[in-house]
Predict the structure.
Amino acid sequence: MAKTLFQKVWDAHAVTQLPNGQTQLFIGTHLIHEVTSPQAFGMLRDLGLPVKYPHRTFATVDHIVPTNEIKEPYSDPIAQEMIEALRKNTKDYGIRFFDTNTGQQGIVHMVGPEQGITQPGTTIACGDSHTATHGAFGAIAFGIGTTQVRDVLATQTLALNPLKVRRIEVNGKLKPGVYAKDVILHIIRALGVNGGIGFAYEYAGSTFDNFSLEERMTVCNMSIEGGARCGYVNPDDKTFEYIKGRPFAPQAADWDASVTRWKSFASDPGCKYDDIKVYQAEDIRPTVTWGITPGQAIFIDEKMPALETLNAADRLTAEDAYKHMKLTPNTPIKGTKIDVAFLGSCTNGRISDLREVAKYLKGHKVKSSVKAIVVPGSMLTSIQAQKEGLDKIFIEAGFEWRGAGCSMCLAMNPDKLVGDQLCASSSNRNFKGRQGSQTGRTILMSPLMVAAAAITGEVTDAREVFQV
Amino acid sequence: MSLAKITQVKGLALAVPGDDIDTDRIIPARFLRCVTFDGLGEHAFRDERTGPDGVDRPHPMNSDQAKKSSIMVVGFNFGCGSSREHAPQSLWRFGFKAFVGGSFAEIFFGNSTTLGVPCVTLSKDDLAQLSDFVQKNPTIEVTIDVEKLTVTAGDKSWKASIASSAREGLITGKWDPIADLLEGASKVEKTAGALVYVAKN
C-alpha cells in the first residue's frame, strides 16, 4: 500500500502499543539545550535512571548565551549556572556537547543539520517547539516538553499518538524579493495558527522542489506557528548533497546504501493524505505580521484588516493585537516606524539568509534611529560568513555583528527590546513580550525586508528599496 | 510508580477568556532562566497581570477567585507557541489542576497530561455557556468528570472531550508514561537494532 513519509518513519520506529493506546515511538536522535533539559536530568537522578542511549543525544547551548561577550563567567549568573548545569549533565552521562569552546556551538536546530546528525527517515525530538526544522531533511521531528526529555533520556522513546498528514503544495516560481519566509507566513495566514493541530504538514510541489535545504528549513521551522507539531519535505538529491561529507554523515562505504534507504522513505506516489491544500507561488508577495500571532499577517502593500471585516473570535484577538501593537485598523502597515532590526534565529539565521541580504546591502546605511543586529545562528555560520567577508558588509552598513545564539528571538540573553520599541524581525514569533519587553512589539518578515526596514527606519517593501 | 487515578477534578473555576493565548504569555521567557520548576507558580501570566510600572493590571489571575480556583476555563488554541513545560508547571503550581477550553495546542496538552492535569474541550457554544456561568457564579463548584466526559456546574452539564489515550492514562493513574516506557526495554532494543542509523554508532 502506498504510504506517506510520515507513516513509513512512524512504522519503522514504532516499538509497541502502550496500555493507553498510544504508540511507544523510538526516537533515533535527541537534541538538548540548556533551558528545557536541567529539570529532566533532575528527574532522572530522582528516579535513579541512567541515560539509555547516550550516543543518540546531542547537546548545545543557545537560548541564554550572550552574543556580545565570550568570557565567562557571564554577567548573568543564572545564565552561567545553566550552561554549567549542562556541562555537568553531559559529562556525567557521556553526552556529546557542542559547547562554546568547540567552534560548533549554535542554535540547536542549526547544529543538527550542520553536523550531519539530521538525516532522512529518522525520528528526532528536542525540548523546543521549533524542532520541526529538521523535517526539511525528511525526518519526523517533534518538539517536546521537559518530562518528555526525561522519557527520551531514560528510554529513547516517547508515548505519542499518530498525526494526520496534510499535504501543502506550493507550485510555481516565487517572484524576486519573495522568500521561503513569505511562503510559510502565507500558509499560516491561510490555514490559521491552530489549523495544524493534529496534523503533520508535508510541504511539496515545484516551489519546494526548487528550494534549497536552508529554505526548506525556514518553512518547516514555523510549522508549529501554524499549530502543526511537525512538518517535513520529502528527501531528494539536494538533501543528500547537503548531508554528504558532514561529520556525522554516513562514511563513503555506507553512503550509497544510506541514500537508497533515505529515498525509500519518501512518500509514495498515490499515497493517501488526510487533507491537501494547494497554493501558487506567484500569488505570494512579501508578507509581514501586524498583530500578536504569526497568523495576523498581510502582504506589505495591503492595509491591516478593518475590525468589522473579522468574525467575532478573530476580532477579539485583533483588538488586543492593535492595542498592543499601537497600530490602526484599516491603514497601511507600510511606513510604520521601527526602532530595532533583528536578523537571526533558527528561522532565518543561516548562511543563505546572510548572503542574500549582503548581496543588496552594499552602499546602504542603517538609519541612525535604528539599532540593527545580525546574529548568525551558529558559530560555523558566523565563521563561513566572515570567510566570505559578509560581516564587513553588515558592519559597514551599520549593523552590529554578534556571536551565535537565539538572541532576540526570545530574549533570554541580554538582547532585549526596551519599552515599546518596535522590532522588524526575521524570527518566528510576534507574541506579546516575546522579545524581552512586555510592551515590546514585533513585526515578522523575511531577512531582506528586515534589512530594508533597518535602512529606511520603517516597515517597507524591500523590492523598492533594493530595486529587486 | 504509583500515581493517583484522576477521574474527577472538582473546584471553583476561573475564566481566562481569549483565543491563541501563547506560552510566552503564560510564563515569560525570563522566568525560564532556572534549573528547577520551583517558584514558577507566582509568575504565571506575570506580564498580563502586572504592568511595566509594577502595578497590577485588571486580569482574572489577579482576582481573589484565582487564588480559590483549581479549574481554568480558557478559549481556543490555549498554550500555543513554545514547548516550555514551564507553562503548565507554573499554572499547576499556582493551583490549577485542570483546564476546560475550546482546543489546546498539542505540546501544552501533552505536557499538562503528563503532570496529571486534564485538558478537556467543549463545543464552542457550550464553552461560551460555561465561561459565562463561572463568571456569573464564582462560588459554585465545577466538576470535570474525566471518566464520564462531562463538565457540570450547578444544574448545568455539558459534554466534554479529551484524547482517549489521555483519558485512559488519567483514570488508570498512568498519566506519566515513564513506567510503561521502561517496561518495554527489550522491544526497544529490537526496534533500535533494526534502525541502521542507530545501530551504526
Observations:
- Chain A is about 35% helix and 15% strand.
- The mean pLDDT of chain A is 98.
- The longest strand of chain A covers residues 164-171.
- The CA atoms of residues 61 and 420 of chain A lie 29 Å apart.
